[in-house]
Please model this.
Amino acid sequence: MGPTQSQPKRSGTNSLNSGATISLSLLGHMRWSRGSRRALQYNVDFMPAEEVVRVGRTRSPFELGLGWLVDFKKPLFNGRSALLKEQEKGSRYRFAMLDVEGNKPAEHSFILKGDKQVGTVTSAAWCPTAKANIAYAQIEMPYGAVGDELVAEIYYQRELHWTRLLAPCKVIDAPIFKSPKRWQTPAPPH
Model:
């Protein structure tokens, strides 16, 4: 190939891996700023049933906030009877969005109600558009309803020393940031 022909240039800083990292970071920010429960991350917010080793670690569509995807009008599909039973008696867990006080992300924290552990954080980050510390958590029923006040047990390292922080948090409804121009058509000039 000669110098005039088009060929992609590859350098150490512009590799495919760095692009994947950026896109996952953007996906995370989209989830936290919009409060999108529809953008769950595989092996972060849930694990597929065929990969789970321990009984009770699977999550149903209802427990992940995706019950709107289940169509009981279909006569037959795998898991239909189990989902009907869950719909009648209720779910074990609830996927909730938390507004955590302070500036320490509650990544992989325990969620407490009083002295009882009622859930775990699956992902967390500072949301710059809403200026809030946001976390997604799997919370045992009946806890985790919008407005519930809970506590996140956060561990973070500072100057080679681990610190434990009990941060108050509140279950909120998504989305937390609503742009006034979100549904404006045509798009306004900048």
Observations:
- Confidence is low (pLDDT under 50) at residues 6-12.
- The longest strand covers residues 116-127.
- The first helix runs from residue 16 to 34.
- DSSP finds two helices and six strands in the chain.
